[in-house]
User: What shape does this take?
Amino acid sequence: MTASPEEIGEATDREAAALRDLIRAAVAGDSRAMRTLVDMLSPVIHTEIAFALQRRAIPARRDGRQDICDFVQETFVELLANDGRTLLRWDEARGRSLRSFVRLVARRRVARIFRGHRGNPWSDDPTENDRFDYLSPPDDSQSRRLETRQQLDEVLAALRSRLSDRGMTLFELLYVEQRSVNEVCQRMNMSRAAVDTWNSRLRKLVRSLTPADKG
Amino acid sequence: MGDQDNLDALAAHARRELEARDLRWEALALGDIDEASLRDELGEDEARERSIELFRPLADDERDAITQALLARARDPREGEAKVVPLVRQAPRWRRLLTAAAPLAAAAALALWLIPGDPERPGREAPTVHDALPTYHLEVRGGVEEQRSSAPTAARQSNRYSPDTAFELVLRPAHDVDHEVRARVFAFAEDGTGQALTVPIEVAPSGSLLVKGRAREALPLAPGTWRLVFAVGHPDALPERAEEVRALPAHAAAPSRRFWVEEYTVELLPE
Assistant: This one.
């Protein structure tokens, strides 16, 4: 057993500044900086992806190893897109270690991969590939209770794939970790009204993802 | 049932998902324990070996490949403002209708597609993990059985179709592909005879492939049970004869690593 990486990775301001320099150097094409970044973050990303694959690959008796590097790279591409914008958005002051933040991004990336979304990190807009997406239920106001594990799996993956980095963080803090709204407002530097508005949008999103009752 | 209840149920599910994780696997991926210790702890088990494969720490050459791929993307001048090249090729928004038996496209740079480059040798193509053949997953919809159920069906291994039953099958890559892909379909009868099948296949820019239509058009075969084998990959890499895929294991890359193999068994009913 080992300490969860959620507990480590705390950085001082100086270390955080050094990390930002490292990210900028990596996206500028510095090979040593890129390798350092890969060495630093790939174990965390790998872990998240491997857990997701473990649930799918083993029951299906599939060899998931060959997917690991692909998915790790995909997550890095998302983190480093647009001059590292996503990775640079990490803010220690918001109470998430870098590794924890990267974990959330990897979790969301994995959800998108398994739902077959286009891997376009710059847009959440639906594309023609939605034609191929059978798991998207119709947007129906008459939702039903999510009961089975399969339903919960599917809707949770859909939800993660649709949320932004900020949305993922809010969902984790408010719902998964069950932190108080006040604490979340403080951590995320958001007003109560802004959190309420986001919450309302989240509920609508969940409704749209929940399969409607038939007859 | 309120949306809030469903939201709470999803959060509880996410918590259970995290709590169910065996942290020993995480320790393996992070290099905190070694494989031998874990094997001793877990005992003999096939699932154990598959998990070890998944959680074994990335080797130096794997990290090198990822690093070089990311650097190649960072340096690619074609992507304008985005220094890191997105996985999605800036493909034209077209969708092509083609048949599996259509003439193969002109030869492409297959060597560059498959063979990793050498970062120590300037001028050679840097290795890109994504240029390799991705894993494909098969999803199906339609069939006599599904008409009695509203639930979407994923990767059902067998299904029955009358001639007018809707048939939809998607082959979806694990990640978007940035090169041309095609599929060939082969059908094997119960007596083992095989044939190349001409079916309409749509290709999305992401590399997903769709076969859709009434069973009579999508699967132009006689009534009976058929094992359909799908070979997906670069146009130049695809097999042409049923014999080439007959014995290949499904849900896996071909031994050549040049195309992916999926299969799906159908029972076609008479009129």
